[in-house]
Specification:
about 375 residues; 2 domains; four-stranded antiparallel beta sheet; 13 helices; 12 strands; about 35% helix; binds adenosine-5'-triphosphate; binds iron/sulfur cluster; binds magnesium ion
Amino acid sequence: MKPQPDPDVRVAPDKPILESIAVSKHFSSETGLLQRKKPPVQAVNEVSLAVRRGETLALVGESGSGKSTLGRVLLNLLKPTAGDVIYEGRNLANLAPDKLRQVRRDLQIIFQDPFASLNPRMSVEAIVGEPIWLHRDDSRSARQDKVAELLRTVGLAPEHGSRYPHEFSGGQRQRIGIARALASEPRLILGDEPVSALDVSVQAQVVNLLEDLKHQFGLTLVIVAHGLAVIRHMSDRVAVMYLGEIVELAPVDALFETPLHPYTQALMAAVPVSHPDLRHPRAVLAGDMPSPSKPPSGCRFHTRCPHVRPLCREHKPLFESVEGERQVACHYWREIANAGAGSLIVPTPSAAYTRRLDLFKSHQALSLESQQ
Ligand SMILES: Nc1ncnc2c1ncn2[C@@H]1O[C@H](COP(=O)(O)OP(=O)(O)OP(=O)(O)O)[C@@H](O)[C@H]1O
Ligand code: SF4
Ligand SMILES: [Mg+2]
């Protein structure tokens, strides 16, 4: 049986499927008896974010900015240190165990590394079928039929079920991971860097598969990614994270055309992408990201921001709503936008960026042709 389209997609399009309300996740570090207690790692700090039903929401930011931690907290794989996660209007902290089991089925994750995330000793049938075995009492042949159907859905052959992960390419293994996620008939899938370990041409195939599945099953997607070309292609909205906080949230075209936050502007200029041929040669952001155990006061970006003023060091900017369904956390975003029209704010993608995007798209066209 295929996962069924979510009937709520038609009846309640405006209701967020998943929300975080002032969610923090701080990791305390283990210390020996004689060592001084270290401050906790503030991986995620007071993040409020609503994931809209049926959208593809991207989480972007430098390594260590808290994307994966936020994703895991949203999926109830990690308990928040503070704040609430609301799924379908219900606070996960107050759910009874049987309801939480259903939430676990509804919210699935696929990982970056298809080589590491599949158990090498299990056959594909066992890997893909495990969620079905856990959650249902079907007969063996019914389960085999379901696994065969799922493998077909992700572009693999039912015969692949008897093979083992090492017999597959990276892209095929990612398809196996996606089939396993689909086995639970989820409503939302979080892809944590789902294509960044793959070749660019294979990335396009997996991105296309995720988009097809999203439409076929009425899924909501949350995609954690470094590769901005992938994000631009597949997401509806983008949340930009810096040092555990969301600094800008905007519809994808608006974010790429007029990034408002100085950090987003720097990210756009750097265009970090995973493929070596597409990598930008220079680091646009000065310095390293500060330690999340000792984040800067006021605006967390102030130690690297070219527009920093005294207020920034003392007061945290509000994450304010601005026109065009956007939110930004910067005291001076208006002044920066006005003063920088044409220089600080990038009104159109740079020529270098456009070249990289074209290259990505041509890889995609090639892979589409090869699929036909
Ligand atoms: N279990 C943990 N214990 C302690 N610190 C952690 C733990 N998990 C994550 N962190 C720290 O929290 C911060 C955010 O990590 P996270 O993995 O969420 O970032 P990320 O944005 O996903 O990075 P990347 O792009 O490298 O995957 C980092 O400083 C990381 O070292
Ligand atoms: S609040 Fe200040 S330091 Fe922070 S991004 Fe805005 S200008 Fe830069
Ligand atoms: Mg991560």
